[in-house]
Amino acid sequence: MRIGGDFDYDSNGMGYAAQRRPDPRIAAIIHRALGDARTVLNVGAGTGSYEPENRHVLALEPSAVMRSQRRPGAAPAIRGVAEALPFDDQSIDAVMAVMTVHQWPDLAKGLGELRRVARGPVVIVAGDGPALPRFWLNDYAPELIAAEQRRYPPIEAIAAALGQGAQVSTIPIPIDCTDGITEAFYARPERLLDPAVRRAQSSWGFVGPEVEPRFVATLSADLASGRWEERYGAWRERPSFDGALRLIVGHGASA
User: Fold this and answer.
1) Which residues are CB-contacts of 75 (< 8 A; sequence separation ≥ 6)?
2) 181 part of a folded domain
């Protein structure tokens, strides 16, 4: 059985807990989608972001490095992958998977497993590839955007795999978002110059070695000269950004 996806978190995952802190407004959207579930399985749980604290959580994560960064008091995470969940049919009230489906070697099998074990909601947060070029980052690192588009499965395919009636909605990204995804810094471009911020974004591992230093040099120069402000200064005034972040909610196979 393959452990892990297209990014090696055991080699590159240190620092995620510090930079990828759950944003409370995004968390509220996810938790509402879980309904009244008392038991929740988090698949591809990583460091534990977005796990509800007032429910019984089971966590599954293939990377030892990511499991080691789980916050104090978080549910222990067991080693495993979405395609082979070690749980009985309809044994969990709700299942969640946040920004992980693009890591799964077999998307259809993984989503089928989520539906198999869920009695109620199956809640997925994923990136919508066609929406990524809306972000000004596309003008500075188009290779990065293209790499992410290749990695992200179609939102329509995820929804279809979750069964009839699955619903898709956009998750607004707040201007001061604490979860360090690339779009979180739509109004704070300076933050993307921080190597620690970029290390917590797996997308930089899928571009050539020339892309990142070129991005840093070009963005630094444009910020210093005022060119970025001329072109994108209005982005600093947006209270939120409807980017590529999507919520897909389906139900267990028996629902």
Assistant:
1) 42, 48, 51, 56, 57, 58, 59
2) yes
The residue-averaged pLDDT of 53-63 equals: 93
Does residue 70 or residue 61 have the better pLDDT? Answer: 61
Is 49 within the bounds of a domain?
yes
Bridge partners of 58, per DSSP, are: 41
Rounded-to-integer distance, Cα 41 and Cα 201, Å: 24
42 contacts 22 by C-beta, under 8 angstroms? no
Give the whole-angstrom CA distance, residue 233 versus residue 238.
10
Domain that holds residue 15: 9-251
Has residue 3 been placed in a domain? no
Per the structure, the count of domains in the chain is 1
Q: Do 8 and 27 touch, CB atoms closer than 8 A?
A: no
Hey, what are 198's tokens? 């970029």
More confident residue, 7 or 191: 191
The predicted structure's pLDDT at residue 20: 64
Question: pTM for this structure?
Answer: 0.89
Which amino acid would we find at residue 128? D
